[in-house]
Design goal:
The protein is an alpha+beta fold and 803 residues long. 23% of the residues lie in helices and 30% in strands. It catalyses: L-seryl-[protein] + ATP = O-phospho-L-seryl-[protein] + ADP + H(+); L-threonyl-[protein] + ATP = O-phospho-L-threonyl-[protein] + ADP + H(+).
Length: 803
């Protein structure tokens, strides 16, 4: 009898085990099942293997996206993603639990995302062949949660939506799954809308409508739409309350559903597109467009509220299948080289002060763009006008960036330019102003400078060539002796970089300007800075003269670095180097004078500066560093970012100064080996490891500086908190962030306390910047964009390896 029972038990085991395995491979996911993010990670497949749920490795990164994707095609197209599109690091997990459903955790076990709204115990999960991941309750019939109810940027066949829901949100770019700025909404009145969010000049966010299905009927609600349906055969339509339907797109060329996959995606560029892909495909087949809305996003997204389909100062062009392409006009480059749909910045600046000193025609010229327009936001309109007068009016107006001529009328516009687009249907001509490459220098050359010497030498040479042989020989000898004497006496011992448009001051000239170096502004390791004045036209211009210590062994090196580095820069958030003196033992640098001193004296003295001004200064420093790292012809690493090296002009705008330790990197070089540079408390960890350093050392220093700006206290305080220990601001900030005590960082600062979201964003950016692992730190461009709220800031990890 026992033998008989054992036999049946073994039969049961051999039957049940394969059945359980089959159930798992048949789309069912058991409670406590877990997936780990790595290249070899398994997925939860749908019964036919059409769809997979799991971690997808993102292109060119070591991060993973918890998502659902088409599994049986080479493209592996993602149709749904969790955690607001935030990727997670290797080693993260997702687990199906009975109490909360799906739980996403980072490698340290911290919860990042979960399926909220679970009302009862989960029995199992199921990956459907429709692309819908569902959670079933313990009764077996109750549906607790489904991915179809929480769409991202894509809808699939058998997916439905009712009015009053925000259906889709575009991703940020083709490779970034962060939320973008385009939305597909199904209004209560039955209209399906495409909208774009845009930040206007006042900093507020506006919604721009650029497509409307027009399904509402104010005279009869029964004629209005109330449900959006994606049928299994591929037709997308709006069902009205009277049971009539209005189809979106066209079904005339709709391929059979039995042979094709379908999807409709709000693409990152704002175009809502329906695609199909053969189930049985050849190697080179991809998704094919069936239809798209709107028909011309460049024209339909134009609004008087924001920037349009592309960024500021850019031009939108329509290409195949309604896709917009954003281009920077001549004389402009993308603000973010990685964002080809973002804003463009001018390669040079325009100055009203410059125009007063010379002819505008010598300084500026125009790029003529036919069939191109930047509608709205003109500040001056003139009619009647001619092309020539429209062009001339912009040339003579130092505020004008572009003039638009159309129908014998002229519109003048300032920067930034918005809603730029080009179309063969336009009858406009745009005159886009740019600085001539051979524009004369802003400041006149001082007397006795080398250009005049060259003219003298050329004249002497001409006389020599026109004389007799004997006289030629005699004059040649005299000429050589004179040339040698002249250059020994007057020629500086140092030639600045050819790109540096700098003055060579005589030492006596600077002695007079500084009244014998009588008024000291500050001093550092390389020398002392004195206040002075130079006479320029009918007014005196304030200058700051840095007199380098002749006894310092690094004086010559520091002098050359500063002249060559800052002399070739031009940005509103960098201090301007006007010139230098290199006579005998005298090494001096001449800067414009900053009337409000250093950021250090501004931050760390009473009374506390207001929050708005502090945040403005932080963002301006970030922009200055973006320029040094990415927008110069030669990348510049400052190497000594600290409050003492940030100066404030008369309007409290930040200017980065003191480039004596700066390191220049040639084109395509991203790392450098060098000795430790910088100041204690602001030096990145990689300096001490004798490894190659990158521009990320400036990011680290900026992170420390940003936290100082937030808290108005130094990174290392002279307050002992224990035996041999001192209060370190970066440690304090991390502790307060972890414990959700950010209020403690800005005590008694009511303005900052009232801006808690901004305060948290700035603190998180600071923590990202001070990460010990330099590869985790953002670039300065990304840090700047995070500060300005352009891109989302993820929760940062602990900045120290040892913590």
């Amino acid at each position: 009898m026992a033998s008989y029972a054992s036999f049946h038990f073994m039969i049961f085991i051999f039957i049940i085990i394969p059945f359980c395995a089959l159930a798992q491979s048949d789309g069912i996911v058991r409670v406590q099942s877990i997936l780990t993010a790595n290249e070899e990670s398994n997925q939860w497949l749908s019964p036919k293997g059409d769809f997979a749920f799991g971690f997808k490795l993102l292109q060119d990164t070591d991060q993973f996206l918890l998502s659902i994707w088409y599994h049986n095609i080479p493209d592996k197209t993602v149709v749904w993603y969790a955690n607001s599109g935030n990727p997670v690091p290797r080693g993260s997990t997702v687990q199906l639990t009975a109490q909360t459903g799906l739980v996403l955790r980072d490698p340290q076990g911290i919860d990042l995302w979960r399926t909220n709204g679970i009302s009862s115990q989960v029995d199992y999960g199921f990956m459907n062949d429709t692309g819908n991941f569902i959670l079933k309750g313990s009764s077996g019939s109750s549906l607790l949660w489904e991915s179809f109810k929480f769409p991202t940027d894509t809808i699939l066949p058998l997916q439905e939506f009712v009015t009053g829901t925000s259906v889709l949100n575009s991703r940020q770019s083709n490779t970034s799954f962060y939320k973008g700025r385009f939305f597909l909404q199904f209004e209560e009145n039955g209209n399906l809308l495409l909208t774009a969010s845009t930040v206007n000049e006042s900093g507020t966010v506006d919604e721009i409508e650029y497509y409307n299905s027009n399904n509402s009927d104010p005279t009869s609600t029964s004629n209005s739409g109330y449900r959006l349906i994606f049928e299994s055969r591929g037709i997308i339509s709006i069902l009205k309350r009277n049971n009539q339907t209005q189809q979106l797109g066209s079904s005339s060329n709709l391929p059979p559903a039995s042979e094709n996959y379908f999807r409709a995606t709000l693409d990152f560029d704002g175009v809502f597109t329906q695609y199909y892909h053969p189930r049985n495909f050849t190697a080179n087949q991809k998704w094919t467009v069936l239809w798209y809305e709107p028909d011309d996003i460049c024209a339909k997204s134009i609004s008087n509220k924001g920037r349009g389909a592309c960024g500021y100062n850019s031009i939108c062009n329509l290409v195949m299948n309604g896709r917009p392409v954003c281009e920077c006009p001549d004389g402009y480059t993308f603000l973010d080289p990685d964002d080809k749909y973002g804003s463009c910045m001018p390669n040079s600046t325009q100055s009203c002060a410059e125009v007063k000193q010379g002819s505008a025609g010598d300084l500026y010229d125009f790029v003529v763009l036919n069939a191109t327009d930047w509608p709205h936001f003109d500040y001056h309109f003139q009619t009647p006008s001619t092309e020539a007068s429209c062009r001339q009016a912009c040339l003579q107006d130092c505020l004008c960036a572009v003039s638009i001529f159309r129908d014998n009328s002229c519109w003048k516009k300032k920067l930034p330019l918005s809603n730029g687009w080009a179309s063969p249907t336009l009858t406009t001509t745009a005159f886009l102003k740019f600085r001539r490459s051979d524009a004369p220098p802003v400041y006149p050359s001082p007397k006795g400078s080398r250009p005049k010497d060259r003219e003298t030498l050329i004249l002497v040479g001409s006389v020599i060539l026109g004389s007799s042989l004997f006289i030629n020989i005699l004059l040649t000898v005299v000429f050589c002796l004179c040339t040698d004497l002249i250059y020994k006496k007057k020629k500086p011992g140092f030639h600045p970089n050819s790109e540096a448009n700098l003055h060579c001051f005589a030492y006596k000239e600077l002695v007079v300007a500084t009244k014998g170096f009588s008024e000291e502004l500050g001093r550092g390791s390389f020398g002392i800075v004195y206040k002075g004045e130079l006479k320029q036209s009918s007014k005196n211009v304030g200058i700051a003269v840095k007199k380098l210590d002749r006894n310092s062994q690094d004086t010559e090196k520091e002098f050359r670095a500063e002249v060559n580095t800052i002399g070739q820069t031009n940005h509103k958030n960098l201090v301007h180097l006007l010139g230098f003196c290199d006579e005998g033992q005298n090494r001096l640098l001449v800067y414009e004078y900053m009337s409000n001193g250093t950021l250090a004296s501004f931050l760390f003295n009473s009374p506390m500066p207001n929050w708005k001004l502090r945040t403005q200064i932080a963002m301006e420093i970030a922009r200055g560093l973006v320029y040094l790292h990415e927008e110069c012809s030669t990348q510049i690493i400052h190497c000594d970012i600290k409050p003492q090296n940030i100066l404030l002009d008369e309007y409290y705008h930040a200017r980065i100064s003191d480039f004596g330790l700066a390191k220049l990197l040639v084109l395509n070089q991203s790392r450098t080996l060098t000795n430790i540079r910088g100041t204690k408390g602001y030096v990145a960890p990689e300096w001490f490891r004798n490894t190659q350093v990158t521009a990320k050392v400036d990011v680290y220093s900026f992170g420390v500086l940003l936290l100082e700006i937030i808290c108005c206290r130094r990174n290392v305080e002279d307050i002992e908190i224990g035996e041999g220990d001192f209060a370190i601001l970066t440690d304090l900030v991390w502790d307060c962030f972890q414990e959700r005590r950010l209020d403690a960082l800005v005590e008694n600062d009511l303005e900052a306390l009232n801006e808690k979201m901004m305060l948290e964003r700035f603190v998180m950016v600071g923590i990202w910047c001070i990460q010990e692992d330099s590869s985790i730190r953002p670039t300065m461009r990304k840090a700047s964009q995070m500060l300005e709220g352009v891109i989302e800031v993820m929760v940062p990890p602990c900045p120290s390896f040892s913590s």
